Amino acid sequence: MSRYSESYFRMQEFHVEVMTDEIGISPPTVLARVKKLENDSVIKFYSAGLDHEKLGYDLTAIIEVISVKGKIGEVEKHIAKFPNVCAVYDITGLTDMTIVAKFKNRTQLSNFVKKDLALPYVERTNTQLVLLTVKEDFRFL
Predict the structure, then answer these.
(1) Which class for 108: exposed (0-12), middle (13-18), buried (19 or more C-beta within 10 A)?
(2) Assuming Cys at both sites, which of 14, 53, 124, 126 could form a disulfide with 64, CB separation 3.0 to 4.6 Å?
């Protein structure tokens, strides 16, 4: 077990104890089941829930992209590499993909849309700004 894993499990001891109380099984059983979920890639990674606005990322943009047919996957993979891109969805409908990205200011957003997305296989984009985030939580269990 790596030092990170050991550290993580030490930090989670309280949570494991809470889980065992809630579901009525022993801590070793909980840890074994979590390990199985990790091995089966059900749990892909652990992360902290960050307040992006407190980190200076005040703008959230939802960007629809129309790509040249046959190049959608290539464009999606390229866009997914940008650090401020939170999600890239391959979708049905009038556009090919939807991007959710966060920016510190309008200049950053403008550069992203006008320069970074000016790819040879991008035909068109449509950018929407989020005015108010009512809920943003991908933990649904």
Answers:
(1) middle
(2) 126
Number of domains in the chain: 2
Look at the block and give the residue holding tokens 């650090």. 83
Residues 70 and 101 in one domain: yes
CA 54/CA 14 separation, integer angstroms: 27
Do 82 and 115 reside in the same domain of the chain? yes
Which has more confidence, 42 or 71? 71
Report yes or no: 65 and 122 within 8 Å, Cβ to Cβ.
Answer: yes
Res 2 pLDDT > 60: no
At 105 the pLDDT is 97
Dist CA 119 CA 77 (whole Å): 12
The domain in which residue 82 lies consists of: 59-129
Single-letter amino acid, residue 17:
E
Q: Is the pLDDT of residue 87 over 80?
A: yes
Neighbour order of strands in the sheet with 122-129: 85-90, 97-103, 59-67, 122-129
Amino acid present at 69: K
